Amino acid sequence: MENRSRLFDSLVVGGQPLRNRIVLPPLTRSRATVDGVPTRLMEEYYGQRAGAGLVISEGAVITPQASAYARVPGLYSAEQVTAWRPVVEAAKRDGAVVYAQLWHVGRQSHSSVQPDGLLPKGPSAVPITGYQYRSPTGRIPYETPRELTTPEIAEIIKAYGTAARNAVRAGFDGVELHAANGYLIDQFLNDGSNHRTDHYGGSLENRTRFLHEVISEVARHLPSERIGVRLSPSSDWMDVHDSDKRTLYSTVVRQLNDLGLAYLHLVEPEIAGSTTVDSPADSIPTAELAALFDGVVIVTGGHDQASGEQLLTDGTADLVGFGRLFIANPDLPHRFRTRAPLEPVRPAGVYGGGPEGYTDYPALAASGT
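Below the sequence we write its predicted structure tokens.
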């Protein structure tokens, strides 16, 4: 007998009905081609996880310069758009709403993977020192990035718009802007990584300017109600520090609240990139920031069915993302609905490779249970 769960309540996001409150959040899996073109294996993977109410794609880079790692997909070429279409169709197979996450890594890249072989660029010439770059031959130090010029910033903003237009052409219902995890937008927001003295640095108004100009550009290509923003307000991953995170992210959320967006996607304080950590000393309770946003709130980060249901009951979240659980349990909504056992994630195959650790996790029907 099925047990009633609030995770299976319906909800409307961006004018589109979701059949449940379960989200497949963006998960980098590195199965595209070397040119960032989605593959048939990705089509199979997303099709397996089509039971979510909302599917958010892995980060799709907006330009070749926006990438840090091999075999991540892009949304900047016609070939990529064509290859995304069957992937999106597979993700929609069971009625899911599907968004593309738009991604630029900024200073987290490395000259070894930059198309021009030059240093990566960021808001300021401030290197990442507390972490190392994961190269194909092992860990190496991050480089000091080049500071973006004003014309270069304008080019990147335009590239976000082009990627959004390409996402629509590929069949996505909307887009999510990756403003979390120490990537480019996050680098502009935090004063530890943004030392600029022009109108993109200094005051909160200036440091949030890049995010708002990106949103405005993306909104030229699809309605604001089809644009989501992902933030990791408490994370200092990849040396993204701020002298006052509470004021910074409270301001950001209040600003976003006025834009009529699809949703605000908040990463829990205990998550740093793809790992679980102790909450930083200056962490901000997710519920505190969620309360500042009048629209739909997604919360992601280490949750199981019970804690996800509690987020909905408490009113902290309207939707809940389940990353690791979805990796190992392609039929996660069915397992939640029937209270079936969950499989653990296998370390092999999380990043890169073929079907192993990607599409070979069995669904209950396939395993005969």
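The chain has one domain: 9-323.
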